[in-house]
Amino acid sequence: MSEYIEWSALGNVLLFGILVGAGLPALFALGVRTVAGPSARDAEGNVPTGRKVLGGICFGITLVAVLGAVAYIAAGGH
């Protein structure tokens, strides 16, 4: 059976699928929760700078990953 299955390739596909399929949406959700979740605002109703920075980092990583994937596909990647 192992002569028909490339286990290293299967492992790479599984790892990448978990990272992209679950990791990026979770990172995006973390950014949303950081900026707009419960107790995100202080007594004056402002979002603290640290939360804005953390949310921006989460959104930035997600955006770079999506744009990188689109560029890879558009360049003829497979």
Can you walk me through this structure?
With 78 residues, the chain is an all-alpha fold. The protein has a domain of 52 residues. It has two helices and no strands. Helix 1 packs antiparallel against helix 2. The longest helix has 30 residues. The radius of gyration is 18 Å and the shape is elongated.
Would you summarize the structure shown here?
The chain is mostly helical. Helix content is 72%, strand content 0%.
Low-confidence stretches: none
What general form does the structure show?
elongated
Instruction: Assign the structural class, choosing from mainly alpha, mainly beta, alpha/beta, alpha+beta, or little secondary structure.
Output: mainly alpha
Kindly estimate the percentage of residues that lie in beta strands according to DSSP: under 5%
Number of strands: 0
Radius of gyration: 18 Å
Give the biggest beta sheet.
none
Q: Compute the number of helices.
A: 2
Query: What is the end-to-end distance?
Result: 26 Å
Order of helices and strands: HH
- Average pLDDT taken over every residue: 91
Helix content: over 70%
Jot down its keywords.
single chain, 78 residues, mainly alpha
Spell out the blueprint of helices and strands.
Blueprint: H1 7-36, H2 49-74
Helix pairs in contact: 1-2
